[in-house]
TrEMBL record:
InterPro entries: Beta-prop_IFT121_2nd, Beta-prop_IFT121_TULP_N, Ift122/121, TPR_IFT121, TPR_IFT80_172_dom, TPR_WDR35, WD40/YVTN_repeat-like_dom_sf, WD40_repeat_dom_sf. Residues 355-672 form the IFT121 second beta-propeller domain. This is WD repeat-containing protein 55 homolog. Residues 1-350 form the IFT121/TULP4 N-terminal domain. The lineage of its organism: Eukaryota, Metazoa, Ecdysozoa, Arthropoda, Hexapoda. GO terms for biological process: intraciliary retrograde transport; non-motile cilium assembly; protein localization to cilium. It comes from Zophobas morio. It comes from the Eukaryota.
Length: 1176
């Protein structure tokens, strides 16, 4: 964290301030002092900075929007306390007068008063819910009242002098501090808690009627040391982890203890080494501020020291003045108010949030109320989506490239390997991990390694990602080094080459511990508390150089080419060191090149320019080029990236107010360097030529691209081309060259508008130029299907399929977001029945699904899909109805048997003449057919030698494959061949227990295989230019329309006949196509037009006459015929060429397996049958 004084408010008449209270909800500050002084102040923030960006948080100007003096007290104000839940202020003075103030019409007024002048009020505290207040007096009187002003109970504690009070977080206990340094515990009714008092002093064993908190921070002494600070964090804003200390007790001697609960016997002990006056927790219990005075060289100095809950000292703030009396926190813990003499000082705090940035993802952490552990949020700033994961304890994190690393600790303190390194992607999903035994204090990473350091050792872990695993292999290297060692890299190389056991690394305590770390792909730098900076060359971890600064480094960073190192020390002084000599470059270190700045709390080097550095100095951002700064910009953001002359920062302070809903608009800011801003102003106000001269003096690819875009807007193509050349952007250069080839000025402007992402303007230009086709094409490329539909509805001419595609794509958009109800409306407009069924299924609208069963034609594949949907939800009757209409009665029977609906299964078997249903292989084909696993069913039948049943299953499988819209034809043929060969095995080895469900199965055994064999052969011959052979083969497909769609058969035949100039065959094929009943009217009209185009130029006669003599009747027939027109004999077909074997069969070869013939000449160079693939 970093803290600095930012504002001072003087109280009139030099009136000394005794107490301050800051309302964390509404921001009001109550100030009480001598002579009854009571003021309520409020700081208002807002406005815009010099760049026009609205400033928020600490960067905004802080002006007093309220400065009201409240009159009612006459003596010195002692105690101030806010009731934030009910917006009330309770004050008390030295005489014991208590006044409750309330807000009315923008001002504070007295609501009620209590005047008990017997003693002074020394403490007041509201319960966490704001319903009860406990008031304690110096003489031991205790009063608990309600928010309405009613007295609940009161007690007079005898012989007790009180000094303060606090409620427990749950409101069940009251904690009292005494003048003698003791702290006592009571319940919320004022009853003593009976408990033994046990101490670590063996001479003292007491029993009393009250529970006394064990005090370990003070030494045994007769001197009474009073308690000056008592604060119990209520946990309303979450905890760092479940066992985080939250009760702070501070003594005047500067000693303090922080406890996990009221009975903690192992508290955290602090020694601030000053005279303490006050202590307080911040809003989430992560920081404790202790205010006091310290004598330094016989001079008293006011100090505020900051600690984390585990006692680690973080910062010390020196405050001017004579005597500090109080320190309070703002609601978001970004400021503290300090009461010093007659002044109120404000100090700004820049917290060290645990966060990082990588791949357009901001990773930040926060504590959620009622949820133990740390919430790690992965905020994708490109699509404004946030993913969260929880870890028990988070110590550090860092990001690089596509991943980040989380350093966690298990909740068990003594667990071995208790510290974990988790490598995560942008969604927070772990992709790799590693357990380590050292206690990490800092982590850094590059493209190959995660480096984590403790105070004495550091570990270099070569992590693996899904992309890097094939390169790095399964072996992940993890090496530990001691901070005092001088590694040369030779030992590790020898161990890797010879696979030797690693030498154990020492873990002894170092006198100069490590405190910070950073790395690039080339080097690793570790900072030590003495100011020593150790430079290690990567990847072999070789200590090559050491650098020294005057004080302890707090943060370090390296520029993009590893030549300069920036260091921020604990005092906020940033120094830039030249480390180029460590990487073999000549050093440029000199007094004139030295850069040093004060009050710096963050820094970031540009990723594309080693000279550019952005730093945060208080609430201003400075950008340095070398050692020369640009004009500062007011900003309180944390720098994410610095690239392309643009800085992206995230407002983590604002995000922490509502971490569940980060917003790109509200929580991200982009700042440009001065050269980029000046270039924009020159282009807007002066002109392109002057801007070009400026860019030549300050060259950068981003500036040249900016100039090129401005030139494109003015259609100055030569200037744009020149600028893109200098920016080395080849793709944009090609774009300009294409623009030159466009003759239409309007189209050219539209293309430029598209390039500049002004899509609406581009569309407008296209429409004005009467090029609605280009406007539609633009919107299609962008995926803006809503706009495509609008353009088409406005009367733009386009193909019919485009509107259908637009409706389908729009529906898919809604499907992506699971908006099924809207998606089904667009699918209905598109006529997409299949997707409509899917949507109704997701909507669980089973009545609509049932209506589709009546609408769809028998055998429609969608019926099977509907049946499957009903079967998944065990809606048996509708599923069976769908299966039966589809024609898959076996599936309906299987479903009935699966759900033990045997009566329905038997009825179906009788209805569709399926015998022996009670056996079903025999008894249901061994339970596999009921699951639809045909491969397993075939395998089981083969093992049982039921080849006929196996063949039937194989034919079913082949039929299923053939009905797929995206079927693989070769795969379908293989299924049919396999089924036919199983049937042949049945013929060779018949099983009496089997019967054929289809008598035609034997006659049609090879039909399916022949159909797809000749279909593929015709396609192959067509594409290889053998047109007549393709015609002969395609002509055979007319006998296989039961296996291949008729439209596919006759389309192929018409095409091959037309190309072969056999217009007689072509005419018959087209006539057949026109008469197919499944054709739509549009498709039929297309075929009619095609026939008209062909036969207006050609007579329907075959121009080629290849005649062969029939071997039976000696009549000459065409070589493509399958039977003789005279003797009606059927000619066998050559499986190799697809031609009919018309002449003598002596020159043919017969397959011994499938018994299909082929010309001997075609099989000379073949090793197997081309149909069944059996060896010759």
């Amino acid at each position: 964290m970093f803290i600095y004084l930012s504002k001072k408010i003087a109280i009139p008449n030099n009136t000394k301030i005794n107490a301050i209270a800051w309302n964390k909800e509404d921001g009001y500050i109550a100030v009480g002092g001598e002579d009854g002084l009571l003021k309520v102040l409020k700081l208002d923030a807002g406005g815009e900075n010099e760049t026009g960006i609205k400033t928020r948080g600490l960067a905004a100007s802080s002006n007093l929007s309220m400065n009201q003096t409240l009159e009612g007290h006459t003596e010195s104000i002692q105690v101030l306390v806010w009731n934030e839940a009910h917006k009330k202020l309770t004050t008390s003075d030295q005489n014991g007068v208590i006044i409750v103030w309330m807000m009315y019409k923008g001002a504070w007024y007295e609501e009620m008063i209590n005047n008990r002048k017997k003693s002074t009020v020394v403490g007041m505290a509201w319960s966490a819910d704001g319903l009860k207040i406990c008031i304690v007096y110096e003489d031991g009187a205790v009063i608990v009242g309600s928010v309405e002003g009613n007295r609940i109970w009161g007690r007079e504690l005898k012989n007790v002098y009180l000094s303060g009070v606090q409620w427990s977080p749950d409101g069940k206990l009251l904690l009292f501090s005494l003048k003698n340094g003791q702290v006592h515990l009571y319940d919320n009714e004022g009853n003593f808690i009976v408990c033994f008092l046990l101490t670590f002093n063996p001479l003292v064993t007491l029993m009393t009627f009250q529970m006394q908190i064990e005090i370990f921070c003070n030494e045994v002494t007769l001197e009474l040391i009073p308690v000056v600070g008592l604060d119990w964090y209520n946990g309303q804003n979450g905890h760092m982890h479940a066992l985080c200390p939250n009760l702070a007790i501070c003594y005047e001697n500067g000693r303090a203890q922080i406890m996990r609960n009221e009975s903690d016997i192992n508290p955290v002990i602090l020694d601030t080494r000053m005279i303490a006056v006050h202590c307080s927790w911040n809003h989430n219990g992560s920081l404790l501020a202790v205010a006091g005075r310290q004598y330094n060289d016989e001079k008293e100095v006011n100090l505020v020291q900051f600690y984390n809950p585990f006692g680690e000292h973080l910062r010390t703030l020196k405050v001017p003045g004579n005597s500090i009396s109080c320190c309070v926190w703002e609601g978001g813990s970004l400021r503290v108010a300090l009461a010093v003499d007659s002044f109120v000082y404000f100090a700004n705090i820049r917290p060290d949030y645990k966060w990082c940035y990588f791949k357009k993802t901001v990773v930040f952490t926060c504590c959620r109320p009622q949820r133990p552990g740390i919430c790690v949020s992965f905020w994708d700033i490109s699509n404004n989506q946030c993913h969260s994961v929880y870890v028990p304890i988070l110590l550090a994190l860092d990001g690089f490239g596509d991943h980040c690393v989380l350093v966690t600790r298990s909740e068990a303190d003594e667990a071995p390997g208790q510290y974990g390194l988790i490598l995560c992607n942008t969604l927070g999903t772990a992709v790799d991990g590693k357990y380590v035994d050292i206690e990490p204090i800092a982590v850094t990473m590059n493209s190959l390694h995660v480096i984590v350091t403790s105070k004495n050792n550091f570990i270099v872990w070569q992590y693996k990602t899904p992309k890097s695993s094939p390169v790095t292999g399964n072996r992940a290297k993890c090496t530990m080094f001691h901070i005092d060692d001088n590694p040369t890299g030779a030992v590790e190389v020898i161990q890797d080459l010879e696979h030797l056991d690693k030498i154990p690394t020492s873990t002894h305590q170092s006198v100069d511990p490590a405190c910070c770390i950073t790395c690039t792909d080339k080097c690793l730098i570790i900072g030590r508390e003495s100011g020593l900076l150790q430079y290690y060359a990567l990847p072999h971890v070789v200590l090559t150089n050491k650098y020294k600064i005057a004080s302890r480094p707090h943060k370090i960073a390296i520029n993009c080419n590893s030549t300069r190192l920036s260091v921020i020390d604990v005092a906020g002084i940033m120094t830039v060191l030249d480390i180029s000599d460590a990487v073999g470059r000549p050093s440029t270190n000199s007094d004139g090149n030295k850069l040093e700045r004060k009050d710096v709390w963050a820094m970031c080097w540009a990723s594309d320019n080693p000279q550019l550095l952005a730093i945060m100095e208080k609430t201003r951002m400075y950008i340095f080029k070398g050692i020369y700064p640009e004009e500062p910009v007011s900003c309180s953001g944390y720098i994410c990236s610095f690239n392309d002359l643009e800085i992206q920062a995230v407002l983590l302070d604002e995000i922490m107010e509502s971490p569940e809903r980060p917003s790109n608009k509200d929580h991200l800011i982009k700042l440009e360097v001065k050269s980029l801003r000046d270039t924009r102003q020159l282009l807007e106000k002066v002109g392109i030529n002057e801007a070009s001269l400026f860019i030549e003096e300050n060259p950068h690819p981003r500036l040249w691209r900016l100039l090129a875009e401005a030139a494109l807007k003015e259609m100055n193509l030569p200037m744009a081309e020149s600028a893109f050349v200098r920016s080395r952007d080849y793709s944009k250069l090609l774009f300009v060259k294409k623009l030159k080839d466009i003759n239409s000025e309007a189209i050219r402007k539209a293309r430029v508008a598209t390039y500049l992402k002004n899509f609406d303007e581009a569309e407008k230009i296209y429409m004005e130029a009467d090029r609605s086709d280009l406007a539609l094409n633009l919107r299609q490329i962008l995926g803006d299907w809503f706009r495509v539909i609008q353009i088409l509805k406005n009367g733009a001419s386009a193909p019919d399929y485009l509107l259908k595609t637009a409706y389908n794509s729009t529906a898919e958009y809604f499907v992506h977001f699971n908006n099924w109800a809207t998606a089904v409306e667009y699918y209905e407009l598109a006529g997409n029945t299949e997707e409509m069924i899917e949507c109704y299924f997701q909507l669980e609208d089973y009545k609509k699904l049932e209506s589709f069963i009546q609408i769809l034609q028998e055998g429609d594949p969608l019926l099977k899909k509907i049946g499957d949907m009903f079967a998944i939800n065990a809606v048996n009757s509708e599923a069976v109805q769908a299966y039966c209409k589809f024609g898959n009665v076996n599936a309906a029977i299987d479903l009935c048997i699966l759900h033990n609906r045997w009566n329905m299964a038997i009825d179906l078997a009788k209805k569709f003449n399926i015998t022996k249903i009670s056996d079903l292989f025999i008894k249901y084909t061994s339970h596999l057919e009921e699951q639809g696993s045909l491969f397993a069913a075939i395998d089981v039948n083969i093992q049982a030698k039921f080849y006929l049943h196996a063949a039937e299953h194989a034919y079913k499988l082949a039929d299923q494959e053939s009905q797929k819209s995206n079927k693989n034809v070769l795969r379908v043929k293989k299924h049919y061949v396999y089924a036919a060969r199983l049937l042949q095995m049945h013929k060779k080895n018949p099983n009496p227990a089997e019967w054929a469900s289809d008598p035609m199965i034997y006659e049609n055994a090879w039909k399916g295989a022949e159909a797809y064999h000749y279909y593929m052969l015709a396609q192959e011959q067509l594409y290889s230019g053998k047109l007549h052979d393709a015609l002969c083969t395609a002509y055979k497909l007319q006998d296989y329309v039961n296996y291949i769609r008729p439209i596919d058969v006759y389309s192929l035949l018409a095409l091959t006949a037309c190309l072969d100039r056999s217009f007689g065959v072509c005419s018959k094929a087209l006539i057949k196509l026109k008469t197919l009943p499944e054709l739509s009217q549009t498709t039929r009209s297309h075929y009619i037009k095609l026939a008209w185009d062909i036969f207006t130029k050609n007579e329907p006669k075959d121009l080629r006459h290849n005649k062969l003599k029939c071997s039976n009747c000696q009549h000459f027939v065409s070589d493509w015929r399958t039977r003789c027109p005279k003797c009606k004999i059927h000619f066998p077909t050559c499986i190799a060429s697809g031609k009919s074997i018309i002449e003598e069969l002596s020159q043919t070869w017969l397959c011994p397996q499938c018994h299909h013939p082929a010309f001997e000449s075609q099989m000379t160079f073949q090793n197997a049958c081309l149909l069944c693939h059996a060896n010759k």
